TrEMBL record:
<feature type="compositionally biased region" description="Low complexity">
    <location>
        <begin position="169"/>
        <end position="183"/>
    </location>
</feature>
<feature type="transmembrane region" description="Helical">
    <location>
        <begin position="50"/>
        <end position="71"/>
    </location>
</feature>
<feature type="transmembrane region" description="Helical">
    <location>
        <begin position="83"/>
        <end position="103"/>
    </location>
</feature>
<keyword id="KW-0812">Transmembrane</keyword>
<feature type="region of interest" description="Disordered">
    <location>
        <begin position="145"/>
        <end position="183"/>
    </location>
</feature>
<keyword id="KW-0472">Membrane</keyword>
<feature type="transmembrane region" description="Helical">
    <location>
        <begin position="21"/>
        <end position="44"/>
    </location>
</feature>
<keyword id="KW-1133">Transmembrane helix</keyword>
<protein>
    <recommendedName>
        <fullName>MFS transporter</fullName>
    </recommendedName>
</protein>
<dbReference type="InterPro" id="IPR036259">
    <property type="entry name" value="MFS_trans_sf"/>
</dbReference>
Length: 183
């Protein structure tokens, strides 16, 4: 009779986190992946300026970079769920406000500020998913399986991030036409 070690009988990360978690965490990345592209497209379409569109998209990235660590600190203090929910609600409001600003006669600095606000309120799904999964691995997996499971999890997380961002680039869709804004 073959004996099984305790580490091989331990549940997988999929069983520990639950498959709905992986589905939700994967789909929740889509809005973030599309924000920069959406901002660029809206500004170029509404204002006719590729340079303003690029600056507004950059402002989204700056907002995420500057405020993201504070969202992480808030998640450490209050938990991921309330921070993600609050960020999602604020982000939806900032996206709507951005549309109003871009299609209004307000000046370019206001467009850039609205872009910054979109990035500042972006829910930090990817880093929070990584930290949640690493915590599950550290607290609930046998020590013998932690290193390999962590490595596999980080590979999955990177692939999940790239799947959404790469799937929207024209170069990643062979056979589909791509068109620059000023063709």
């Amino acid at each position: 009779m073959a004996q099984t070690s305790s580490s091989s009988a331990a549940p997988s990360l999929l069983a520990l986190a639950g498959w709905p978690y992986f589905v939700i965490a994967f789909v929740a990345r889509l809005p973030f992946a599309m924000m920069v592209v959406g901002v660029l497209t809206m500004v170029v379409t509404a204002r006719g300026s590729l340079s303003l569109g690029g600056l507004a998209s950059a402002a989204v990235g700056v907002g995420t970079a500057v405020i993201g660590p504070f969202l992480g600190a808030a998640a450490d203090r209050y938990g991921q769920r309330p921070v993600l929910i609050a960020a999602a609600v604020l982000n939806a409001a900032m996206l709507a406000l951005f549309a109003v600003v871009v299609y209004s006669p307000l000046g370019e600095p206001t467009v850039l500020l609205a872009g910054f606000a979109i990035g500042a309120t972006a829910p930090q799904v990817s880093p929070m998913s990584r930290s949640r999964l690493v915590t599950i691995i550290d607290e609930r997996m046998p020590a013998a399986r932690r290193a390999r499971t962590t490595s596999s999890t980080m590979s999955y997380e990177s692939a999940a991030d790239e799947t959404w961002s790469a799937s929207w680039r024209p170069s990643s869709r062979p056979g589909l036409p791509s068109r620059s804004p000023r063709c």
